[in-house]
Amino acid sequence: MAAWCSAESTKPVFVGIYGAVLGGFAVSALFFLLSSSSSLSAPTLPLPAAAIAGANLSAPTPAQPETMYNRPIWKPPPRRARMPSPRAFRLTRDMVAARARDGVIVVTFGNYAFLDFILTWGRHLTDLGVDNLLVGAMDTKLLRELYFRGVPVFDMGSRMATKDAGWGSPTFHKMGREKVLLINALLPFGYELLMCDTDMVWLKNPLPYLARYPEADLLTSSDQVIPTVTDDSLENWREVTGAFNIGIFHWRPTEPAKRLAKDWKDLVISDDKLWDQNAFNDLVRQKFGQPVQGGDLVYSYDGKLKLGVLPASIFCSGHTYFVQGMYKQLHLEPYAVHTTFQYAGTEGKRHRLREAVLFFDQPSYYDSPGGFLSFKPNIPKSLLLDGAHTVESHFELVNYELKQIRTALAVASLLKRTLVMPPLWCRLDRMWFGHPGILEGTMTRQPFLCPMDHVFEVHVMLKDLPKEEFGPHIDFREYSFLENPSLPKEVKDSLLDVQLCDEHSSRCSAVDETDKHRPFLLPRNSTEEKLLDLLSPYKDVKIIQFSSMVDAFGGFADAAVEKKFRNRVKRYVGLWCCVEFREIGHIYYDMYWDEKPGWKPHPPETREQDHPPWS
């Protein structure tokens, strides 16, 4: 943190860190001097609209020579340019002044593990015409990547590892403390600060909305899941029961806000196990409940700080956006979505944004070497709509879907193709605690299109499991993949439509291979040998689309291959949580539920029984 915050302003526990950082600058200086080329280790994302249009959102006036501080976003430095010295990346008032617009700066930060999130965050903002942004780099690898991609970046001096910091880990808590220190460093510069986590994206320019409440010292998002308003006004703070969420909040450089930031810093530094968000909530609610004149804001913290709560219907959490679709039901335009309320770590956050077609991937993501396999899910209306929404009816629906997906995974594995997952339907919501199926007071409809991480262990599916035990990796894509505008036309147009037929029917034997417009007919329950024999000639077709996966595959020929496949896909599914009033309330999904006569969706009775059904 020495790059932007003096050691005198922190507790003694951090003095050693600051000393190490100062030494780190000497080490990183060598790294910078050796960085003599602007070549990147990864291909660039497609240029944002702002860059295509000339990237002149923040072009300096003729009186202002172009510098690394005011260079247009997405405009890289001159070719073969050397990396500037570490000092040039220190956070200063001049750097913020060069990037701020109308007294506002928008900031996020992270390490190299979140590069793609940061690029997605920045691209959404610039596509909305917002270019007054800065990114804090917690490691030199991210700093270099962003600099050479033309993203305004400063060095936080954190010297953090480039790997992902899992939720709740010591590194996760360290990142939280860094955020608090960063806010304390920025507020004295005198600019309004819109601080964002990297796992959120902007869908609409938020600055005009924030400007509607000039009296607010602080506007914060929240984990509120029950609407307190039905329009785009601030939440009714009297009815907010969810925690204030510090993934999106807007600070004005007022004295009450600065005092809160300092007390927050002192609190998190005093206890390295304290979660920054809990500390923030505790401080804000110390004195809470006196309305500011007009009623939209509330006095909080020290009784002088004026706080407003951003509406969760349009400054969305992972629940109000992906599960409830609250903004749709209220006919509102969302400003942002933060990938909270999900169950598969960073991989789950990324996948949710992909499902919503909000994530910007590398071009290679859209053209798998082996091609893609998709299918149209076949779900009877009775499983979706008939009867009460209970644990039993929920599992009956999901199990029916799992059986088809299991077949699709087997076919994809044999054909060495990437599976495009189908949309998943659920009758019940998932939480971390017991509940009656959906949270009372929410706008969740039943059934609903549920995120993949409600059922599948997305992070496990992406792991490189040992082939000796689990067979070959099976790649997959989100259900919206084929509708993504980034999918190349040559991929989308290269399609083989496969329809299932009864092997001994006249229709199944009457195949006219000269008619390219007719669907390809595949006998139901085809053996591995027949499947490969009939579809291998189409290995150059980019997309093979099955009309159904019900009875599409008769089984593996090799028992050893099947055993490895079963070991793999058993670990792909997670659990549903949770039955109310039970010590153990969760119920494991079972990829092979249909092989267990009398299988019922019951929670484990004892701790000894509480394990996934992998055996």
UniProtKB/TrEMBL annotation:
GO biological process, one term: cell wall pectin biosynthetic process
InterPro entries named among the record's database cross-references: Glycosyltransferase_77 (IPR053250), Nucl-diP-sugar_transferase (IPR005069)
GO cellular component: Golgi apparatus
Segments forming domain Nucleotide-diphospho-sugar transferase: 130-353
Name recorded for this polypeptide: Nucleotide-diphospho-sugar transferase domain-containing protein
Transmembrane segments: 12-34
Alphabetic keyword roster: Membrane, Transmembrane, Transmembrane helix
One Pfam entry name: Nucleotid_trans
GO molecular function ontology, one term from the record: arabinosyltransferase activity
Domain of life of the native organism: Eukaryota
